Structures are given as structure tokens and as C-alpha cells.
Amino acid sequence: MSSMSCDERFAVHQDDYKSYDMAKLRRHFLVKDLFQPDHLALTYTHYDRFLVGGVMPVEESVALTSPELLKAKYFLDRRELGVINVGGAGVVEVDGKRYPLAYKEALYVGSGAQSVLFISDSAQAPAKFYLNSTPAHHAYPTRKVSRADADVVQMGALASSNERAINKLLVNSVLPTCQLQMGMTELKPGSVWNTMPCHTHSRRMEVYFYFEVPEEQAVCHFMGPAQETRHLWLANEQAAVSPPWSIHSGAGTSNYIFIWGMAGENLDYSDMDHLTPGMLAQNGEQA
Ligand SMILES: O=C[C@H](O)[C@@H](O)CC(=O)C(=O)O
Ligand SMILES: [Zn+2]
User: Fold this and answer.
1) Strand 181-187 and strand 164-170: pairing?
2) Is the minimum distance from the CB of 221 to ligand 1 under 6 angstroms?
3) Distance from Cα 114 to the centre of ligand 1, integer Å
4) What are phi and psi of 227, to 5 degrees?
5) Nearest to 249 by CA among 155, 129, 153
6) pTM higher than 0.90, yes or no?
7) Mind listing the domains of the chain with CATH numbers?
């Protein structure tokens, strides 16, 4: 039998966050155990009511059931959904229509869809569907976005250990969405820093999900206002919730890939307030 869980996370004020010890910081901002066999693992954050989830169908298909706290008959009654497959080949079936999703392919599912089923092609190499969902008040069409459809931007350089390709997948330059924006950033071998120089965007929150982190390697994710940063050490296939007051940037002990998902006030990807490494070096020195 497939199962589901939904963890509820309340929003945290930046004045309170800075007094958290590591265990408390992780309890509020780290999302783990996203891929358990035949299980829909959801985390509902009160930052823009953004839902983060993972589902790995193995023995059977797993349905996108509506968690009790949504108080909705169907999960997508008042929401939109983005799916990126980070595992073996699989299929997402939306109201009877099948969308095959290979590794790193994305699907946007518009509000109003009633039946969403996640299926793996093979139990030996199960699909791993990473999910982001946000409130939506308009039904935009469900559409698959493969890597060829992505809006790709090359950023950084090997000399500054941040050479990477930003693949904008579910963003408004590719397809219409209400507020969800998702993409995937791949670091080149030898590059370990993502989103450096870093930024904040108080009009949007963000969630970073790290994958392809090799065995026994880790990513150090940095969060917080520029004056009060903290870090979270993440293993493969774990995510960090980034509040609107927080930077989101990481350095790995190897290269890796991550999926970013955002929601909030606007759909303007480049609406960022940038911070230079020199500004970060002033951490804790201003009142
Ligand atoms: O607001 C945008 C997001 O933080 C990411 O798209 C940034 C990113 O992928 C990168 O610089 O590597
Ligand atoms: Zn950002």
C-alpha cells in the first residue's frame, strides 16, 4: 500500500532565527527523506504556502493525494504543481493523460487537475519525482518541459569555482505559471560554489534541493541575512527552505546539481538584490 506524510513548517522571523542552535535550525529549514519507496513525502511551509515533496514509486503507482491540512478534495483544487524527475524513467499520469518523464525532465501541472499518478518504468531503477507546489488562482495548461525547451544561462568561471549552467525549466520565459518558478543548476567539474555572488529577493521565497552529491560528499548551504549567516550541511537529495530574508548559496566538497523553486510576488527571475563576497566578509560587524 502506498502511504503519505505531510510535515507542517511555520514561518520563522529573522530576529529569532539567529538564536537557533544547529538541531533547531535543521528542524525548521532542512527537508530530508524525500524518496521513500511508494511514499508521498510532503512538507508544507508557511513561506508563501510552498509545498515541497518527493515520491519514489517502486512496487505500485502513487497518487498525489490531498493532505488533510489543505482541506481540499483534490490536491490541485487551488494549487499548481511542478515536477522534475531525478531518478529512473517514469510517467506522470494527469487525468488519464500520460506524460513520460526521463531523468531531469520537468512537468508543469495546472490547477484543477484531479487525478495525478506517479509511476516508475522499472522497480529496479525507480523514478524519483521531486515536487514543488504553490497556491494558484488560474488554470494554466499542463505541459512537459524537456531539457531542449529550457532557457539556459551559463554563469561563473572555473577560476572562481562557480562555473555552472542554469537551466530555467518552469519559468515564465518558457511557459505560463501563476507563481511557481523552477529550474536546475548544474555545476561543472571543479566548480563547487552555487549562487555566488549571492542574493536575496524579499518578494519571493525559495527552496534548494541538492542531488548528484557523490557518496561521502556534502554541500554546505548558507542562509540568513548578509549580516547573520548560518550554514546547513546537506547530504544528497536533501533540501533547504530559504525565507524571503535569506541568502541561498552553497559550496560542495565536489560538484553537484540542484533544483531551485520559488514563489511569491512576481515572476521576474532577475529581480535580485546582489551581495558581493566582500559584503559577506563584513558579517556580524555592523549593528
Ligand atoms: O533566484 C534565483 C535562484 O536563486 C537560482 O536560480 C540561482 C542559481 O541557480 C545559481 O546562481 O546557481
Ligand atoms: Zn534566489
Assistant:
1) antiparallel
2) no
3) 32
4) -85, -15
5) 155
6) yes
7) 3-280 (2.60.120.10)
β-sheet bridge partners, residue 135: 79
pLDDT in tens, 197-222: 999 999 999 999 999 999 999 999 99
206 Cβ below 6 A of ligand 1: yes
Residues 6+ apart with CB under 8 A from 272: 199, 200, 201
Three-state secondary structure of the chain: CCEEEEEEECCCCHHHHCCCCHHHHHHHHEECCCCCECEEEEEEECCCCCEEEEEECCCCCEECCCCHHHCCCCCCCCEEEEEEECCCCEEEEECCEEEEECCCCEEEECCCCCCEEEEECCCCCCCCEEEEEEECCCCCCCEEECHHHCEEEEECCHHHCCCEEEEEEECCCCCCCCCCEEEEEEECCCCCEECCCEEECCCEEEEEEEECCCCCCCEEEEEECCCCCEEEEECCCEEEEECCCCEEEEEECCCCEEEEEEEECCCCCCCCEEECHHHHCCCCCCC
Residue nearest to atom 2 of ligand 1 (CA): 269
Are the beta carbons of 267 and 171 closer than 8 angstroms?
Answer: yes
Give me the pLDDT at residue 227, please: 94
Sign of CA dihedral 49, 100, 256, 234: positive
Asked if residue 194 has its Cβ within 6 Å of ligand 1, the reply is yes
Grid cell of 102 as nine digits: 526521463
Q: Which three cell numbers stand for residue 137?
A: 488562482
Residue 287 is predicted with a pLDDT of: 56
Q: How many CB atoms are closer than 10 A to CB 97?
A: 10
Residue of the CA atom closest to atom 9 of ligand 1: 185
- Decide: 164 in ligand 1 pocket, CB within 6 A: yes
